[in-house]
Amino acid sequence: EKGGFRTYMDKEIHDQPQAVAETLLGRTDAAGRLQLDELRIEESVLRAVDKIVVVACGTAAYAGHVAKYAIEHWCRIPVEVELAHEFRYRDPVVNEKTLVVAITQSGETMDTLMAVRHAQEQGAKVLSIVNTHGSTIPRESDAVLYTHAGPEIAVASTKAFLAQITATYLLGLYLAQVRGNKFPDEIAEELADLRAMPNKIQTVLDRGDHVRVIARWMNSDSVLFLGRHVGYPVALEGALKLKELAYIHAEGFAAGELKHGPIALVEPGQPVFVIVPSPRGRDSLHSKVISNIQEIRARGARTLVIAEDGDEDVKPYADEVFWVPEAPTLLSPLLSVVPLQIFACELATARGLDVDQPRNLAKSVTVE
Ligand code: F6R
Predict the structure, then answer these.
(1) Using CA atoms, how far apart are residues 232 and 249, in angstroms rounded to an integer?
(2) Is residue 57 lining ligand 1, measured as CB closer than 6 Å?
(3) Atom 16 (ligand 1): residue with closest C-alpha?
(4) Are 245 and 358 contacting, i.e. CB atoms less than 8 angstroms apart?
(5) Count of CB atoms within 10 A of residue 137's CB?
(6) Which residues form the SIS domain (predicted)?
(7) I need a surface site. Which of 7, 52, 178, 216 has the fewest CB within 10 A?
(8) Which helix (H) or strand (E) holds 134?
(9) 345 within ligand 1 shell (Cβ under 6 A)
(10) Parallel, antiparallel, or unpaired for β 38-39 and 51-56?
(11) Which of 66, 109, 116, 345 to mutate to test the pocket of ligand 1 (most atoms within 8 A of CB)?
(12) Among 227, 223, 222, 301, residue whose Cα is nearest residue 266
């Protein structure tokens, strides 16, 4: 049921606070320690892990990109993110000390399943992050962390993506707990920050009209997306949503790459979304991304900026600002991606396209 929304996708975008909240629910024991759903991996094995390799496709792989930033920061374990279809045909350096994390909404993506088997053959343990109960990948995994996003009907992934990111945060904190990277009270603090996210996502949804108006009037056939740090995978996801739903050319870039090529694409009128890191971050990324906005604005770009509430620095260079509530940097993708989802959904709908069933795409890709 679409619950009063025009499309499943609209509904699923609006289900996101709940998808994140449900994914966080019931993950702690009476003592407040994190627990995974189905763990068939000994804690001693998890303590010995010296590398994590995330395997996934499409949007799920972007969730893996976000996970890399969080897990490396929290657990000091190197994390690689690899597209499952590349991983399975390489000769990857994987062994008993590698934890392979498969991320998949459907649990049936053929390439991801084959990557899981490829890893297990080499002795790696596989933990999967899956939305669909009873599917194949969790059955073949050594551990499962379910995302509780509920069934996702629209072909393009939205709420499953936010739930996947949330699950990777839980995994990161769980590993930090097991391996002693963090004190219990530090983990409790991170969990409290996470539990505050559903309300903040709701705030972004409540402000959705601004981005919908911009989407309806967008007549460009190319849109660029720039992001840095965790904003980079958000930029990639924003571009993917637009390609899938609106069939227009869209590309996401790491903002630091701008000078190394992509800035050549910027001509007068070119719409560019920029995901701006929090000004409260410890490093200088905020000012670097502001400089990027200045550079593209000087070349005539139409700058569509996603920024944190109260960030005055963006205003002089932004044609539009889509404000999101304050959040810890590592958790911010749960907020910054939402305006991009709304943008793609609204633009495609305004062009009369079927956002729930985009052409040429299937909900789960069970063939190569
Ligand atoms: C994008 C999208 C796809 C899937 C990809 C993986 O909107 O839906 O890119 O994310 O096909 O699917 P799962 O997560 O089922 O393995």
Answers:
(1) 18
(2) yes
(3) 104
(4) yes
(5) 23
(6) 41-181, 213-358
(7) 216
(8) none
(9) no
(10) unpaired
(11) 109
(12) 301
3-state DSSP call for residue 100?
A: strand
Which atom of ligand 1 lies closest to the CA of 164?
14
Q: Which runs of E-coded beta strand occur in the chain?
A: 38-39, 51-56, 79-83, 98-104, 125-130, 143-146, 222-227, 249-254, 271-275, 302-308, 320-324
Q: What is the largest CA-CA distance in the chain?
A: 59
200 is catalytic: no
Tokens of 65: 């990109």
Place of tokens 């705030």: 203
Side-chain half-sphere CA neighbours of 154 within 13 A:
28
Residue 233 tokens read as: 């995978």
Distance CA 366, CA 368 (A): 7
Pocket test residue of 66, 106, 108 for ligand 1, highest count of atoms within 8 A of CB = 106
- Confidence grade of residue 5 (pLDDT, cut at 50, 70, 90): very high
Residue 281: pLDDT above 80?
Answer: no
For residue 51, what are its two tokens?
């590398």
Q: Is 106 in the pocket of ligand 1 (CB under 6 A)?
A: yes
Element (H, E) at 325: none
pTM over 0.90: yes
- Which residues lie closer than 8 Å to 319 by C-beta, 6 or more apart? 302, 303, 304, 305
Residue type, 6: R
ipTM for the whole complex: 0.97
pLDDT at residue 1 in the model: 79
Residue with CA nearest ligand 1 atom 5: 58
The CA distance from 57 to 139, in Å, is 19
187 Cα–ligand 1 center, Å: 30
